[in-house]
């Protein structure tokens, strides 16, 4: 699990100036840890010197914690790693000690710290998972197993991606697995300086693409921000150096406008009788770099933000009211993440106030508990297996202060676990994981039954369908968004209500076009997997005509081809002399009785059936394709495509859909072309329980106000 120890002369990310260093986040002194580790384990009755600093940090968050498991875990880890050294020359045990201290400072509970001390033993020593279970219990064994790498000898080049897949699955059951991995990566990034530059760059890129987004999603901002700075130093050393120089120059200034505004805020709150702590919170390197690129010349207040900490939720709004009353607020900067928390547990009020000289200070207002969660994220939730607190609010787990605690398996993680099972190989999993994690904002949409769906920003109705129904979403035929009919390509907004309209045909197929509108991995993988396992279906629509001429060159496709009707109509047509042939009805003309029909063989031995007047028939006959005699069988259910031409008016789509439904006909798919000269073209593919209903259906559609024609599609033959 480890990168090797740092060489101070080549360390990629030197510590920031003392004035800019975050309180409570000291750098680990590896030499001190090394000296303490060399002393060996202590007696049974005394805590080893090497973990005294861990115990101190742990007791600061958990005063009554039992330290005996930590003592035993250190003894086992130290003895099993004894003789192993890092490239810096420090004993290897300094790495698990440093990782455990990081977690202890964040407030992790004892089980997490115990597993952290042992997290490399199974991977790098003779200790087995069975031994860990026997000595420390099943929870510790699970956490250690979750962060243990898969062997390259077994997985080859896929070892890294499959290790992450294994780790994410384990995280789905216990988020403490990822907490340990993030702390492990942070210490490795801190000590990456002795690695070859190309290895530093490779590790930094994986950290940027995977670990930092995971830290953001789990709300562990304290780890995320330092990881960002370390990656920034490796991948963009010149910009890092310039940003570091800006910070140093600002620290050397005689006056600090941010400190002056902080004192003014303290005075306002004192006069209002509000008990609050006001701190200056310096921006980390990456944050300041982003601000400098956005604003150009930086002013004193750009180098940090004010943090106001209070006791209760109501106090947050009281502080906000006083600041907006007594100072000059920048209203456009106000955001309420208390009423509407971010998907990663974050809660806070954001605002900004301006001075007379035009300098603007950003202000964060939150309770002490909110601040703990903002810094430590899921680490602050403690043990997910622990029994709920006695003080319940609406059936939800609460902490000791009565504040709500979010579940330890957030919605984005559930979605990730769902699609990763469908990823067929390591390469697709790895590339899709990076793409999924790059979508860093989430929206919530509501279902008519009162449930919700969490989706990434930019998601469409296609994504909502697969999020709600999994692969059953193949049968989705449309959607209503906020009560109005909408296409499946409609992009959803936060707070939308989405009703997905599902067809009744179990053999329904997704459209290849859905891939263009699928934003989530779950939707894309499900559609791609279906298309890959149904090559004959994919060939029947446009590909049915993508056959070879006699000279071996591919024939062009006719304009406006549509996918063929699905194979649930296999018994609708009988092929002369081949009663067992696989038959499909062509989507370009969707024949139904009593249409005169003919057939053509396509790839996979499938016979596609067309109406004899279909333009595709003329074209294929012109190419020398042999016709196959077919006739209608006994099946009465059919699909047919109808085109409605109408004048543009409000609610026309809803009225047409209602007219179709009143005839007892199911809509399989529907498209509406953009209006042209106040005229609109609607194309419906419908499932008829009986072909004899077609004339009545077309008549009902023509009776809808504004509709002036309903007909079967007649595509023009492509020019040859």
TrEMBL record:
Its EC number is 2.7.6.5. Residues 1-10 have a biased composition (Low complexity). One of its GO terms (molecular function) is GTP diphosphokinase activity. Residues 92-189 form the HD domain. The keyword Transmembrane does not apply. Residues 441-502 form the TGS domain. CDD domains: HDc (cd00077), NT_Rel-Spo_like (cd05399). Keywords: Transferase. Residues 641-715 form the ACT domain. Residues 1-27, 386-407, 535-569 are annotated as: Disordered. Residues 394-407, 546-563 have a biased composition (Basic and acidic residues). Belongs to the RelA/SpoT family. This is RelA/SpoT family protein. It comes from Streptomyces heilongjiangensis.
